[in-house]
């Protein structure tokens, strides 16, 4: 007797196809479609059911590249099931396309891995939901531009009319409509007979077909069609679908197209082309300069908001007026100002204070961030940018409800943003070192990798007149979709942050992303700039021109590979950030410990200043100009600000003398002494507010000044004035009048105010909004697969027949019987002795019911200790929580 193994039977359903996969293949499926594992399915049948739901299929289709999506679209218009050769013909045409033939196995493999296609190569089946979504219909035109089949188009046609069409087409009449439609379909799918039929049709009639061949396949006709249309209708080359509407049958269109389902098949991703090449040293230096500017800009923004920033709108976010003020203060366009504001918010350095009069201010994390080395501060900003879903480029636009989108406001999260940012930078890493990409080629590559969802079918929606021509796309399109805009914004933002320099990815940017070293320049450039094109082809016997844009690429010269898009773990990201900081640090300018004081009451900082010096000088002077060197100007107001912060005149003199490479100019020394002499002579406190001064003549001067009228002052005593204004308003009013008052506490002590005293309560950075369920990690995948396998074993394995039942009764029913406590205990004790595996129903302490496959080890004290196949570990279960138990029959081979 032969012991040869019988070939495995072809799967009859998606669940059976999944049952034939090993654990690695199931893990790949759950990793590519994480929505299938949330929550963990009970068994493979439930997994298959979930994989076929509309929401899950739409999400999976949206994540396919253009060629794989075109393959699925071709399967949707093929027979069900379709052999592999038929699918190849729909994509490669009658004459064949070597590039398509080489790429198609990978596309089919991807569709199989994602459970969108199942079955052997001789019986490829697209899951039903995907076929419904991608099949052509009048309401949802297919991106292929194809119409219904002859059978579908003639479904409502009278038998007599069908026989007339068969006879006019030169076919013998039949006895029933079904055989007539089959004969007509056989004619339209026979290349030689179809060519002969078209040869009898006048050119003006063929011109009508040419206008419909690439879609949309529908056209409008009058009640009395012209002769050129009547010839087509009589032969079934056009079929009526509704009064005044005709359609080009799918079989006819495929013949006219030379067997192709798409106008443009793109099996190879378009290359990312280098627009310019710069020396790597120049790229790194430029990027480092941009990185330093980014740090300075964020610091300047938050310093401007140190004492309380703009108010929060009632609907959330920053007002247009406040954004304009911020843009003026940073000397940048408003859209760029929105980017810096959003970046500080994403990094957790900026938040609202949560007060009744809610305002934006720096967070306590900002003080910690400022004390870190410059390179580490940069990695904090860029890491926040990479992972943030908030999209500053949308500021100023409108949402779905036509509401304006404001900076820091709601509605700016786009879950695709982190993926696009990383993918764009990965493509840059695939170019030669120092090469800046052409932005259009980057956008085109991303559109190929993730085509925008079609909104109107292949060639628009609705029906078109048969007298007007139209073209069809391939499901891609170059519209200004969100991902294209994200691509442009990513390239601009990476340049502003210093991830790129002159458009090319820098060494520290590459390290931050955890990407490998670039490929050799000559090889990468040869791959990126190859001009290879596949030849055009037309169908045999075809009198109509078949327009086919050949794919860029060739099996012998494939497109340049790009670095894999991987999401780094926290530990990997920390290591990459440290490596980037090490590369960037030597490129940044060293902080200086000195300035150059000048006689015109200015100080010049020839470079970045050390933190204590920069902080003190920022209080003592105002920034007049920025650039390679920063110019500070000393004014009475700036000196008074330093005195308000608790500094004495002697401290200021000593500070300037210690940090100036030039002698302290006499005008500056006089300015400090003069302001210090008058500082605090007036005291303002809270009554509502009052002013007190030992010099009553000065109070008389204040009362006599017309500018004091708005303060509502009146004399309470020779040395005290009361005011209707609050203390802050009174301080500001007196300072505008030229005085130098000091605030005092209720105890009469001078209040010292720091410039950075305004901070929000501790705030965490905003959490990114994920695009669907997160990708499960290896531990969760392993546990989920164990649970699914165990549940599938329990639901499909035959149960042992009980006494009095026929053999096999209940086998494979998938229903767990309920058992009493005595029967449950007896079954458990017997399984301990025999080592058998049991299927149990269990309800935990929270009331959640589940089914498990266990191998009991010990039963005592009302508990059973067993090896749980579902969890792959030994567990203990209370017997009173087990609702039912059944023995699984041993497999006999």
Automatic annotation (TrEMBL):
It holds the Pfam family WYL. GO terms for molecular function: helicase activity. It comes from the Bacteria. Coiled coil: none annotated. Residues 134-154, 435-482, 513-565 are annotated as: Disordered. The keyword Acetylation does not apply. Keywords: ATP-binding, Helicase, Hydrolase, Nucleotide-binding. Residues 457-479 have a biased composition (Gly residues). Residues 595-717 form the Helicase XPB/Ssl2 N-terminal domain. The keyword Hydrolase applies. Residues 823-885 form the WYL domain. This is Helicase-associated domain-containing protein. The lineage of its organism: Bacteria, Bacillati, Actinomycetota, Actinomycetes, Kitasatosporales.
């Amino acid at each position: 007797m032969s012991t040869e193994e019988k070939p495995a039977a072809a799967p009859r359903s998606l669940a059976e196809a999944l049952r034939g996969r090993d654990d690695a293949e199931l893990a790949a499926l759950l990793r590519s479609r994480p929505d299938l594992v949330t929550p963990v399915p009970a068994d493979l049948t439930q997994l298959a059911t979930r994989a076929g739901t509309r929401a899950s299929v739409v999400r999976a289709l949206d994540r396919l590249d253009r060629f794989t999506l075109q393959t699925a679209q071709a399967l949707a218009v093929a027979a069900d099931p379709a052999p592999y050769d038929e699918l190849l013909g729909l994509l490669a045409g009658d004459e064949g396309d070597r590039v398509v033939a080489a790429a198609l196995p990978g596309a089919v493999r991807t569709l199989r891995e994602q459970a969108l296609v199942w079955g052997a190569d001789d019986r490829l089946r697209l899951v039903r939901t995907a076929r419904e979504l991608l099949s052509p219909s009048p309401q949802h035109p297919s991106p292929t531009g194809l119409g219904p089949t002859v059978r579908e188009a003639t479904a409502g046609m009278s038998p007599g009319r069908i026989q007339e069409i068969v006879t006019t087409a030169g076919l013998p009449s039949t006895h029933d409509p079904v055989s007539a439609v089959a004969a007509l379909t056989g004619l339209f799918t026979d290349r030689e007979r179809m060519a002969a039929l078209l040869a009898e049709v006048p050119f003006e009639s063929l011109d009508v077909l040419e206008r419909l061949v690439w879609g949309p396949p529908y056209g409008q006709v009058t009640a009395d069609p012209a002769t050129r249309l009547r010839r087509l209708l009589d032969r079934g080359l056009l079929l009526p679908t509704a009064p005044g509407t005709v359609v080009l049958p799918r079989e006819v269109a495929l013949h006219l197209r030379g067997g192709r389902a798409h106008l443009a098949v793109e099996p190879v991703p378009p290359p990312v082309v280098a627009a310019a090449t710069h020396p790597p040293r120049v790229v790194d230096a430029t990027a480092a300069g941009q990185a330093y500017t980014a740090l300075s800009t964020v610091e300047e923004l938050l310093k401007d908001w140190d004492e309380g920033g703009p108010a929060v709108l009632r609907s959330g976010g920053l007002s247009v007026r406040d954004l304009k003020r911020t843009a003026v203060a940073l000397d940048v366009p408003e859209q760029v100002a929105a980017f810096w504001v959003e970046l500080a918010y994403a990094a957790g350095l900026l938040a609202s204070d949560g007060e009744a009069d809610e305002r934006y201010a720096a967070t306590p994390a900002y003080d910690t961030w400022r004390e870190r080395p410059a390179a580490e501060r940069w990695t904090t900003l860029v890491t926040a940018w990479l992972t943030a879903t908030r999209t500053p480029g949308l500021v100023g636009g409108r949402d779905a409800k036509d509401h304006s989108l404001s900076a820091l406001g709601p509605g700016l999260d786009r879950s695709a943003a982190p993926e696009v940012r990383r993918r764009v930078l990965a493509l840059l890493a695939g170019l030669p070192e120092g090469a800046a990409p052409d932005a259009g080629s980057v956008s085109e590559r991303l559109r190929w990798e993730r085509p925008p969802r079609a909104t109107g079918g292949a060639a628009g929606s609705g029906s078109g007149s048969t007298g007007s021509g139209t073209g069809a796309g391939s499901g891609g399109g170059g519209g200004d979709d969100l991902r294209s805009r994200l691509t442009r914004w990513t390239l601009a933002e990476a340049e502003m942050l210093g991830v790129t320099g002159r458009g090319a990815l820098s060494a520290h940017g590459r390290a931050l992303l955890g990407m490998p070293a670039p490929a050799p320049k000559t090889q990468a450039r040869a791959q990126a700039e190859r001009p290879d094109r596949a030849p055009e082809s037309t169908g045999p016997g075809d009198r109509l021109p078949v327009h086919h844009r050949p794919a860029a690429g060739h099996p012998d010269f494939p497109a340049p590979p790009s670095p894999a898009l991987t999401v780094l773990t926290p530990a990997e990201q920390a290591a990459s950030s440290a490596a980037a900081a090490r590369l960037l640090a030597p490129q940044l300018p060293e902080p200086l410990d000195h300035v150059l004081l000048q006689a015109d009451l200015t100080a010049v900082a020839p470079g970045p200043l050390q933190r204590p010096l920069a902080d003190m000088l920022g209080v003592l002077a105002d920034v007049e100009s920025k650039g390679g060197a920063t110019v500070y100007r000393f004014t009475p107001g700036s000196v008074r600000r330093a005195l308000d912060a608790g500094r004495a005149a002697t401290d200021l003199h000593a500070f300037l003398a210690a940090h100036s490479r030039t002698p302290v100019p006499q005008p500056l020394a006089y300015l400090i002494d003069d302001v210090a002499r008058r500082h605090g002579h007036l005291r303002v406190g809270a009554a509502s507010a009052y002013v007190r001064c030992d010099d009553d003549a000065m109070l008389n001067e204040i009362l006599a000044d017309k500018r004091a009228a708005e303060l509502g002052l009146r004399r309470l005593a020779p040395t005290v004035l009361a005011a209707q204004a609050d203390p802050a308003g009174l301080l500001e009013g007196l300072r505008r009048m030229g005085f130098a008052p000091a605030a005092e506490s209720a105890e009469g002590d001078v209040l010292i105010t720091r410039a950075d005293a305004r901070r929000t309560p501790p705030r965490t950075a905003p959490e990114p909004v994920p695009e669907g369920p997160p990708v499960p990690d290896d531990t969760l995948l392993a546990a989920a697969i164990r649970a699914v396998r165990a549940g599938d074993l329990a639901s499909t394995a035959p149960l042992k027949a009980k006494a009095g039942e026929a053999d096999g009764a209940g086998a494979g029913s998938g229903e767990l019987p309920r058992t009493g406590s005595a029967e449950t205990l007896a079954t458990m004790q017997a399984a301990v002795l025999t080592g058998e595996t049991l299927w149990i129903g269990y309800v935990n302490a929270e009331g959640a019911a589940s089914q498990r496959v266990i191998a009991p080890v010990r039963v005592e004290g009302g508990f059973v200790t067993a090896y749980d196949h579902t969890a792959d570990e030994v567990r203990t279960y209370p017997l009173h929580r087990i609702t039912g138990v059944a023995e699984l029959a041993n497999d006999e081979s």
